[in-house]
Each structure stands twice: as C-alpha cells, then as structure tokens.
Design goal:
Number of strands: 12
CATH architecture of the domain at 136-315: Orthogonal Bundle
Largest sheet: 5 strands, mixed
Structural class: alpha+beta
Radius of gyration: 36 Å
CATH topology of the domain at 136-315: Penicillin binding protein transpeptidase fold
Distance between the termini: 139 Å
C-alpha cells in the first residue's frame, strides 16, 4: 500500500497553494442550514401566535341569530367606511365654495344707473344695519317657517323626515308639488351656488347646509336667509321688500303683509304683488293655511288677515335688468374693494332700450320655437364697438332662477370656437383663398367627421371650410400647422377668460366657454384687431358726487391682439357666412353687413350664433339646463334668427360704422323704416323718469322712477 504522504498532491511545506473548496462548501452548508432553521422557527412561532389569537377570539364566537347580526354589523362597518371616504371626496368641492369672505356682499350698498343716468336697481345690504331676528314681527318669522321649513329648529341642515314627506306627496300627485329643501339648504344655494338643476349642485348644497349649521346659530341662518333672498321687483331681502311693496319698515308690518312676504320666497316673479296682485293674495292665503296646519296659529287668529288682505303701493311694473345687475355688482366689488366708501352710485353701460329688445328677442324665440326644438333656456350678450356691454340676458325668468347663463354657465361652443383656429392660421400667414385638404384625418386614434358624415370635398378654400363649417380642416390645421397651445393662446388673447383644455378635440369646440367669453372675443373683429375692452361700469361715484372710478381714465388703452392683415382676412371670411354659409338666417335687412359663426355641439345639446356688425357684437346661446338634447337645433336656426331679430332693431336710427377691411354698404334715407311695434324704442325721445344723477346724502328708498 502506498503511503499517503507519498502521493502526488503538493507538499504544504513546499509553499504550494492548498485546495480550500471543501471548506467553502462546508460554510455554505452551514448558512443554508441556519436559514432553513430560522425560517422554520419563525413559521412555527407565527403558527403558535396565530393559534393563541384564534383561541382567544373563539370565546367571542356566536351562533344563530347573533352570528347573522354580527355579519350585518360587519358589512355595515365596511360599507360605512367606504361611504365615509366617498362622502369626504364629495364634500371637498363643496367646502371649496366657502373660501374667501362669503359675507362680503354685506359691505356694499350700491345704486345702479343706466348709461343715461336713470336709476335701474340696487344691490347689496349692510348687515350691521339690518333688523335683528328678535326685533322682527313674530308673524313674519312664523309665516316664513310655516311655509318654508316647519322643522327648522329641529334638524341639522337636512330634514330627512321632511324630505320623505315631500317625496311621498309628490309621488301621490304624480309631479313636484312640494320641495324637500330646508331653509338652510336654500340659504346655502343663495350664498354659494347657482340654480342649476344638477346632481352636483344638490350634493354641494347638502354639505354646505351642514357646514352652515356647524358655523352659525339658527338665528344667524334665519337672518341671512331673510336678508339675501330675492323678493321680486329688483329687491333683495324682506326689509327691502317691505319698503318696496308696502312703504313700511319691516318692524311695522301686520299678519296679512307678513303672509304676503312669506309667499314670495317660492316664486317671487310669479307672486310679486306689483305684477299680479290676485296671485300674491292667493299665495298669502296659502301661507295663512300653513300657519294653522303647522300649529303656529289658530284659525281664529288668521281670519282677520284672510278677510282683510294686504294692500300694496300702486307701482308700475319694474323691469330691472337683474342678470346684468348681478354681474355689475360683482364687477363693482372687484373695483371698489380698496375704496374707503362702500355706499356707492354706479353708472353702468346698459342701454335699457336694447336690453328690453334683447329680452323680448330671446323670450319670443323660445315661445315660438321652444316646444318644437325642445329647448327651454337661452342667453345673450351684446357689446358695442369699444367694449360697453349694452344688453345681457342670463335666462328666461330671473324670479325662477337667478343663475346667470350668460356669465356663469360653461357650455361647449361647438363650431363657433373654430374662429380661433382660423385666426391663428391667418396670423401664421394663411389666406382665405388658397385650398386645403378636406380628406379623412386621424389624430391620436381620433377620426373626426364632417356634419354630413362620409362627405368630403377633396380640396377646399379656407373660406369654404369656415363658411360650410367643415370639421376636418381646423383639425388638420391644429395637427399639422399650429398645435392646440397656439389656438388656446389666441383665444385667450382675444378675451376668452375660461381655462381652455388643449386636447385633440379642442379645435371643434369641446372646451367649455361662457356666452360673455364669446361676445368679448368676437368683438375684436369689428374693433380692427384690438382688445374689445369689455366693461359694464363706466363710473363709480359716492353720494357726495365724487368720481371714484372712471373707465375711460383709469383703464389702459386697448392693445392689438390680431394683426390688421389677419383681422381683415377673418372679417372677409366671417361676413360671407351669412351669405353662402351656415348662418343665412342671420343676414340683416337694409344692406347692413354682418359677420359671424354658428356652433352646434354633439347630440344637439347647445346651439350658438356669435356675430357682429361695425357697431355691435352679439353672442346667442340656446340649450337646456340639464344638458338634455334639443330636437336637432343648430346654430344656424334659432340662434341665428334671434341674432337677426335683435340686430335689425339695434341698427336702426344710428350712424353706422364699417367693419374693418370690408366695404360696408350702408342704407340710404329711403331704406329707413318704422321700428317693429313689438320692440321698445332704442333711443326714447321722451322718458318721464330720465334724469341726470344728482348726488344725495342717502340712497333713494326704492329702485323705481
């Protein structure tokens, strides 16, 4: 046998390297063993721990009906947690409305005059001078609570019992005959929200009602409600209404007068006694019945008020431009906040002749065609060249809804937005006559179609594209030549204040704007490419006659936003649309040249026409508050006809201005004709209440002449 010491392996003493691989394998095996043991021990201990927990909780296990109860409670906790998270998400937008000084309206008391100096209304109230709840007649407080919210002192902003009762009554009646909103919810709407009938608004209203209950006492809520509610005749608040209708201080009214005031909260335009005295007295009688049914008074206590109804001051119907006054009041607060004095007289830009004509144009269009087109609302803004707002219609009935659809409603403009794409193209050097491709186009997976689906013309001029409202051309310009950011910047320069989404569908008018936005931007065209300088206030004075603000002196001069060449090209194309394009029903009489663009949104939800002459720019919108579709109404139908009705009237009896870049044929003396009898005179030659404003030490007691 060979001696192991004599093998061929290297000798350690010789200094040769020794093979240490067995030792490394041994170390790795020990590490692997330690990991396995540690994991096993951890699992074993975890199992023991879990077993201990299971054994502990077994003592709480239930069977039978108790188990079913705990299962239900567990599900309720799960859904309750999810519901709480959802409610928090819904509440955040509502609480955003409370930012800022929401009591600021009380700091101002403003008397408004029209452009000629006639008094047209008031806004604002100084709460420190309002009558405390404890000093109001007990009959008024009871009448309001009996009619508007009998459980006011028992709920916390939302009356679930009252809501259930209202739903039951409405279901039996087959329609809405009783509302479920509490007085606090109505105040939340008046303070923070609009009258839009949307689910979002109702959710916000509910959260804000709870917020008001948490931050104000019941007396403060009731006082704010009585101070802020619209009461008809251009008056806000019960104190102003008492002076206007009865010529009395609010503390001096009797039960019959209290009942008549309490009846106004539901529908002030319908029940205003100076408009419809029989309806106001019938409504007051319902309030007296509510007092008896609510247990607040007996039949014997109200019988005298039934037999001797309230007598009101004999006034002519006051037609205040309320939508305009609300907007002008916001503008006044923005301008006058730094002033030391907040009791002000404001000379506005409104022309009451044009205002009445605008209101009649919208209302007559809706009465004549509203049912056939299935449309219920409209809005309009008229701006004279130079920027003064001459007329504003924010909806059909201010008494029914104070939401101003001209300044606050965000609606898709449809093809009326295309002017910003074409304006940007003209600025880049395009001309109306060269041709551009009208062929199918795909942009990021989106393939827009023309109004006549599947109909394409090959190559068309820019004039034809805008006149026929072809969709592929503005999309092609945005995709290949301009980019949506440039189009949005052009719209902003021209006067669109609403944030614009710059997605791929924006060139076809999917980003919402207001009617006031559109009127302001289009007014750049007759202004020769200069800013429209839209404004509703020309002067602000105190009651000593000192001028605190003057638009012509305090505001900067208009800046150029479109080059003269681009503006002339746009005017050329836009004035062809009423002749050869989609707006033929907007063509004016007597040779007056007008330009403009129609707009119709998807599913016929919105229809627009925005047009101009050398003298005025007018934006018209028709649609429904709940965004339901109309019956195939396009911008070239009812909006264009309404534009023509107003502008034919407005252009009579004035010195005409030409549209820049357009040879404008003006009517001669033989073209003059009588004004339509259904419209008020544009420039009344004799107005009994017209007067220049003479400063006084205290505001007039009523908004009438």
């Amino acid at each position: 046998m060979q001696d192991p010491s004599q093998d061929d392996s290297p000798n350690q003493e010789s200094g040769a390297p020794k093979d240490d691989r067995p030792r490394k394998r041994h170390i790795l095996l020990r590490i692997d063993s330690w990991i396995d043991l540690t994991v096993w021990n951890a699992g074993f201990r975890l199992g023991v721990w879990w077993e201990d927990i299971t054994i502990f909780f077994r003592r709480f296990s239930v069977r039978g009906w108790k188990k079913a109860l705990f299962e239900v409670l567990g599900e309720c906790m799960t859904w309750g947690t999810a519901g709480s998270v959802l409610m928090l998400a819904l509440a955040l937008p509502a609480f955003e409305e409370t930012k800022g000084n929401w009591r600021a309206q009380g700091d101002f008391a403003v008397t408004f005059l029209d452009r000629y100096g006639n008094e047209i209304g008031h806004r604002g109230i100084i709460h420190e001078d309002s009558v405390p709840i404890d000093e109001l007649p007990d009959t008024l407080v009871k009448a309001v609570l009996a009619t508007e919210d009998r459980r006011f002192f028992d709920h916390y902003g939302i009356d679930f019992l009252g809501l259930a009762r209202a739903m039951t009554i409405n279901a039996r009646a087959g329609g809405v005959v009783q509302g479920g909103s509490t007085l606090t919810q109505q105040l939340a709407k008046n303070l923070f929200l609009s009258n839009e009938r949307t689910i979002e608004r109702k959710i916000k209203e509910a959260f804000l009602a709870v917020w008001l209950e948490s931050n104000l006492s019941k007396k403060e809520i009731l006082r704010l409600y009585l101070d802020r509610a619209y009461m008809g005749g251009g008056t806000f608040g019960a104190a102003a209404a008492s002076q206007f209708y009865f010529g009395k201080n609010i503390t001096d009214i009797n039960l019959a007068e209290s009942a008549m005031l309490a009846g106004l909260f539901k529908a002030p335009a319908r029940y205003a006694p100076h408009v419809n005295l029989p309806a106001a007295r019938a409504r007051a009688n319902e309030v007296l019945t509510n007092l008896v049914q609510g247990g607040l008074m007996t039949e014997g206590q109200v019988i005298a008020a039934r037999l001797t109804p309230a007598k009101v001051i004999d006034r002519a119907e006051v037609t205040a431009p309320d939508f305009f006054l609300d907007w002008a009041f916001d503008e006044t607060k923005r301008i006058a906040t730094p002033f030391a004095q907040h009791s002000l007289v404001v000379r506005t830009t409104i022309d009451m002749g044009l205002q009445q004509a605008a209101e009649e144009a919208v209302e007559s269009s809706l009465r004549q065609y509203g049912e056939s087109y299935k449309v219920k609302q409209g809005a309009m803004v008229m701006i004279e060249n130079g920027g003064p707002v001459r007329a504003m219609v924010g909806g059909r009935d201010y008494g029914e809804s104070q939401f101003n659809r001209a300044t606050k409603a965000l609606r898709q403009p449809g093809s009326s937005f295309k002017v910003y794409t074409y304006t940007a193209a003209m600025e880049k050097g395009f001309k109306p006559d060269p041709t551009i491709s009208d062929a199918p186009i795909t942009w990021r997976g989106w393939s827009p179609q023309n109004y006549s689906k599947g109909s394409y013309s090959g190559r068309v001029t820019m004039l034809t594209a805008i006149a026929k409202s072809i969709n592929t051309v503005p999309v092609r310009l945005a995709k290949d030549e301009l980019g949506t950011e440039i189009i949005a910047a052009t719209a902003k320069k021209m006067g669109v204040e609403t944030p614009i989404r710059t997605d791929k569908t924006m060139p076809l008018g999917t980003s919402e704007v207001t009617v006031l936005d559109q009127a302001t931007a289009y007014a750049v065209f007759p202004a020769g490419g200069l800013q429209a300088r839209r404004h509703g206030i020309s002067q602000i004075l105190n009651y000593d006659g000192d001028i605190l603000y003057d638009f012509g002196h305090d505001e900067p001069a208009a800046k150029r936003v479109i080059s003269e060449q681009a503006n002339a090209s746009m005017n050329y194309m836009l004035t062809q649309i009423p002749i050869i394009g989609t707006a033929r029903k907007a063509a004016l009489d007597n040779g007056i040249v007008a330009g403009g663009k129609t707009g119709t949104t998807q599913a016929y939800r919105d229809a627009w026409f925005v047009g101009f002459t050398g003298d005025y720019t007018t934006a018209v919108w028709f649609g429904n508050d709940d965004y339901t579709s109309t019956n195939n109404m396009t911008g070239g139908s009812l909006p264009a006809m309404t534009f023509k009705r107003l502008m034919d009237y407005a252009e009579q009896g004035i010195e005409h201005r030409a549209i820049p870049g357009i040879e404008n044929p003006l009517p001669g003396p033989d073209a003059k004709r009588m004004r339509p009898k259904s419209l008020p005179p544009n420039r009344p030659t004799k107005t009994p209440c017209r007067r220049s404003f003479v400063p006084v030490r205290s505001p007039p007691k009523s908004p009438g002449c």
